[in-house]
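Quick look at the format.
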Amino acid sequence: RFWPQARALAFNAKGGEPASHGFTMAEILLSLTIIGVVAAITLPSLTGNINERTWNTQRKALYARMSQAVALMPALNGYGTLDDTTDTAAETFVTEGLSKVLKINNICDSDHLADCGIPTKISPLGGENPIDVPLTLVGLNSMFNGSTDIGGPNSQHYEYSQKDTKAAAFETQNGESILVFYNPSCVSDMGENSFSYVQPKMCANFIYDLNGNKGPNTVGKDIGFMTAIYPADSIVVAPVPQDFNGGSGSHEDAVNKCRNFEDSRLPNIHEAMSMFYNRSLLGGGWGGLAIWTSTSSGGGTFWRQNLNTGHRGPSSRDPWNVRCVKR
């Protein structure tokens, strides 16, 4: 019953010839051009969002594995030999410590870090010009310089003693490349309720690359850091600093500024310590700052951490700097 109607549509009225409903070559090319332009605009953003979600998932999974591994270790200090001629501290920490509680594919000493997928350069937070990957504890942070009797405010003095150590590296079974900095003489929290330095409390610091030698090798993307603090009852933190300059203000101002910037919050005191240890990875806008933390020091005061010298102390209403981390 539909054939007459279909036939009528297929032939024109004048000559009975089939009607033409195709596209011209110009129309096809124009359509492809529009599609190409739209794809060029949207694909980088789409790819970036996918990468960001992938990195966030990997980062959380790595943090969970590392936290569990460190919790299984009896103590984090005392590994390896460290004297005027021999430095096996970081390598031994991995081979005799971490590898017993964490599945590791490959371990590399300080002379063969590239064999574990460690890049030679990385870009600090915000994609600033690449810097050389640090190869020693002092290279990570020059304030790990073995200084003793550091003067504090009100003529107070705080002593610590440590030596520089070479970095080591390892690859996980999940494909992450991890650079390890180790302080074999790290100490526990002494319950300081006033001014102190945080250098001696760092036992192990890790710079991780979630995808090995692949790009973009940028902090906050595939590159990040993680720190194990205190030799016993250790605390592992992996802050992800935001590329955000909140200026300065009171503690209340700092809380509000971070809350209002995307998915952010103030770092706690241990995250702020980790940020000090890894300050070279944070870029030029972080140098010389004393930043607020979210951790109360009692009596209506909160800890603030100096990212230049490493000292920390309680404060109440002083206008310290505001820097945030991802929730």
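Next, a different chain entirely:
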Amino acid sequence: MFKVNFIKPLGDRKGFTLVELLIVVTIIMLLVGLVGQNVFKRLGKGKQGAAKAQVEIFGAGLDDFRMDMDRYPTTQEGLEALITNPSSEKWDGPYLKKQVIPKDPWGRPYVYQSPGTHGEYDLYSYGRDGSVGGDNEDKDIISWQ
């Protein structure tokens, strides 16, 4: 009987052909292109969510400060008053778990003003673009909404 063997046994193969490598590289590039877009979209949303959560945590600390001191920290005292006594006997802090005021997810300090224009205090981050306003990832994260 005549036997035709188109596929070599694994022991006889010495490597991949150029065509096989090109196919694998093409598939990987397509996957990176499709998955990469979704990952970067979610990364931006994640930073927005982290900034919102941090503003909420600061808000809780500011409210605790007010309960003890009968006022919010002044603009000059800033958020540092939540972790460092601004020389008052009423202060019963620190009001945050961490002993450092973190920067926003884009590496800039949060903006704190008291009295604020939207309430007793205004606390916000300018978002990814670092300027007032913006949409999507550039949208400002604010405490008064």
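Residues 18-69 form the longest helix (52 residues).

See the schema section for token definitions.
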